[in-house]
């Protein structure tokens, strides 16, 4: 939690109970929609990503089915584990493949979904665990980097834990050519109030109500992450097609259409448990990921006897109306964090929330180590620095 933090150099504090909404605060809504700017799949072992990525497809299985509880460590944040220095670097490599003309000068926030969820809980003054995020700035863009105490988390072998991943493996499959994928990540752009945000998150599955065909004839770029610069990485791209496409002509929408890849309208979150929890329990995660479907598997001691698929898209409006004050406070918090980080020049500071008897304060400290959000060549390319 405190590694690499100058604890005596407090740059600013944000008190959740003192957050005031601005008179002209705009409504936070999902109605403007979202844009998929890139996607990628991590390959097993973490040496490569493939972009565009493809979600594993949901497949029906015969019930009941008995599965063995998992007892192992898995990464909390794949990008942080495989790219500890610049955890957002894979995102920009994927943008170079899918959206090479995109620039980020008008982007306010770049973050992971998990960071938004933690900050919203903080603004709501609801129960949450201690957390830390690293803050880095490129021009006017604030990077909020996830920072866990441990690189991985144990999937506990208790009555209700440890079945999620094995259930996902039993009920999903990656398409041909992507069988070695360990995870799929989507990156969306959407507004939070008047903030232009880019949000990255892992997607569990793609669910198709109509059994549409998979992505045959796809063009996927295999990126070796061992290269030292963006230029060398792009020069060494390989593809599963006989001819490499002109990277300057590949744009996200066209690439997705040509490849037949499954995109956000089919995205699904998978949850498991010994009882069927209501969708509202997971709505925060679904809303921030703009994930329209929730798949719930119900089991008894690992024997799954029921699967319920729910389209939650229509519930987004009510959820955001019920949480409008907290969402607007989240926007205020993001602006304050950016202002504090910008006051330090390039950012490189740390925001820490500590769970205590009076858990209302998010404190921002100077980081001990000099660090940039991205390698210099990426910042030049995407911001024109």
Summarize the entry for a quick read:
The chain has 385 residues and is α+β, with helices and mostly antiparallel strands. 23% of the residues lie in helices and 31% in strands.
Descriptive overview:
By secondary structure, the chain is an alpha+beta fold. 23% of the residues lie in helices and 31% in strands. It has one domain (5-383). A hairpin with a 7-residue loop joins strand 20 (347-353) and strand 21. Helix 3 crosses helix 9 (324-342). It starts with a strand and ends with a helix.
Labels describing this entry:
five-stranded mixed beta sheet, 31% strand, twelve-stranded mixed beta sheet, 23% helix
Main beta sheet: strand number and arrangement? 12 strands, mixed
- Rg computed from alpha carbons, rounded to a whole number of angstroms: 21 Å
This entry's quaternary arrangement is single chain
Outline, from the CA principal axes? globular
Poorly predicted tracts of residues: 151-160, 212-218, 227-232, 234-262
**Strand order of the biggest β-sheet:** 1-21-20-8-9-7-13-12-2-3-15-16
Mean pLDDT: 84
- The tally of strands reads 21
Structural class: alpha+beta
Strand content: 25-35%
As a percent range, the share of helical residues equals: 10-25%
């Amino acid at each position: 939690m405190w590694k690499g933090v100058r604890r005596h150099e407090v740059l600013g504090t944000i008190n959740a109970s003192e957050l005031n909404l601005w008179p002209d605060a705009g409504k936070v809504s999902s109605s403007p929609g979202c844009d998929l700017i890139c996607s990628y799949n991590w390959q097993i072992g973490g040496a490569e990503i493939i972009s565009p990525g493809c979600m594993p497809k949901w497949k029906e299985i015969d019930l009941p089915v008995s599965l063995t509880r998992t007892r192992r460590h898995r990464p909390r944040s794949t990008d942080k584990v495989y790219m500890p220095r610049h955890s957002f670097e894979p995102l920009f490599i994927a943008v170079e493949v899918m959206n090479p003309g995109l620039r980020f000068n008008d982007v306010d926030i770049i973050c992971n979904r998990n960071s938004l969820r933690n900050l919203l809980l903080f603004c709501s003054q609801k129960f949450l665990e201690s957390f830390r995020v690293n803050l880095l700035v490129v021009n006017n863009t604030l990077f909020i980097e996830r920072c866990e105490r441990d690189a991985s988390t144990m999937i506990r072998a208790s009555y209700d834990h440890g079945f999620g991943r094995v259930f996902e493996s039993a009920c999903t499959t990656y398409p041909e050519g992507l069988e070695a994928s360990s995870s799929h990540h989507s990156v969306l752009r959407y507004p939070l109030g008047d903030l232009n945000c880019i949000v990255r998150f892992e997607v569990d599955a793609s669910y198709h109500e109509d059994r549409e065909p998979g992505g045959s004839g796809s063009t996927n770029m295999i990126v070796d992450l061992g290269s030292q610069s963006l230029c060398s990485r792009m020069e060494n791209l390989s593809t599963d097609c006989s001819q490499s496409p002109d990277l300057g002509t590949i744009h996200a929408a066209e690439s997705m259409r040509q490849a037949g890849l499954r995109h956000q309208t089919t995205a699904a979150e998978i949850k498991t448990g010994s009882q069927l929890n209501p969708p509202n329990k997971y709505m925060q995660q679904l809303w921030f990921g703009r994930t329209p479907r929730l798949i719930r598997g119900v089991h008894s001691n690992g024997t799954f006897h029921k699967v319920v698929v729910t389209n939650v898209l229509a519930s987004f409006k009510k959820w955001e109306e019920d949480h409008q004050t907290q969402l607007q406070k989240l926007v205020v918090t993001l602006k304050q964090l950016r202002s504090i980080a910008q006051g330090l020049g390039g950012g490189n500071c740390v925001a820490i929330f500590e769970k205590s008897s009076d858990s209302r304060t998010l404190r921002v400290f100077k980081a001990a180590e000099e660090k940039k959000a991205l390698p210099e060549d990426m910042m030049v390319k995407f911001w024109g620095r």
